[in-house]
Amino acid sequence: MKKFIGSIVSFMFLIGILAGCVSQGSSNSENEGTTNNASEEKEANGKLKIAVVPKLIGIPYFNASEKGAIQAGEDLGVETIYTGPTEPDAAQQVKVIEDLISQNVDVIAVAPNDPASLTPVLKKAKDQGIIVMDWDTPADQSVVELSVHQIDDEQYGRHIAKSLIEKMGTEDGEIAILTGGLSAANLNTWIDGAKKELEENYPDIKLVTDKIATDEKQQVAYQKTLDLVKSYPNLKGIMAFSTPAPLGAAQAIQEKGLQDDIAVVGTALPTDSKPYLEDGSLDVAILWEPDKLGYLTVALAKQLAEGGKVENGQNVENVGEIEVWEDGKTIIMGPPSDFTAENAADYDF
Description:
This is Autoinducer 2 ABC transporter substrate-binding protein. The chain is α/β, with parallel strands linked by helices and 349 residues long. It is built from 10 helices and 16 strands.
């Protein structure tokens, strides 16, 4: 009887051990599933966050840039955050960047409205381990690791000036310059290049007034052009820098019927320019493909964040071959494009 009871106890003990093993095995299986889920979640959360900050959101140029930046994020497997102020205002940009810092993004690429105003907040980002770049417009070069330019700025400005003289059909006369914001570094560099071209090669061209700010608004450019036409009846040409400015200038020229009297050239998108190009109120729009610029910015940000080095002559998919200057920091996407009445319809931006 004792042997029988002992056998039962031993059997029950063995069952308990086996049950424990089964229970332990189930527990490990559950833990493994939890671990895998956590790992997958970590991997998902570990996707590079690249923030691209334009001068402002909502205008066609930066809408096109956004399209390229978002597409690059999808193609390259990174999270692209495209955000900026609603006005071309440095204080608003600072707030946007402060918010991005709090989100602990990996890269901030900014097109500054006022480079000096952004230096403190960009230094703050850099001190917190965030890679800082600029695109479209140079920031403080002591802060950024890459500076992504659309074109060689001086050559671009010179090209715009030469184009104006060609469309005016004369090498003497009065001209005016419209710009976006007075502190925009890229616009100022282009204007400096244009002025150099005029001073060196067209001494009989007279600039009637200093550059005129239009606040990145077509309506302001339109009104400023009407003022110019009234104040300077012998005006023969207008160079307009910032994408809304040429459209506003052309709108005024169109309204006044001055297509044959005043030439207008500027930095505008082909789709927006088409109606003005067709009736001659805008002679030529000179730009590049902004969607490619947005794409390039995200592609280079990813490369930088992953420890890669950008090389001169490197071919960037969906963009093309890029130029890297000797400083190893300045990137040139490529030469500008002339959009005319003949070719504007070939583009979809």
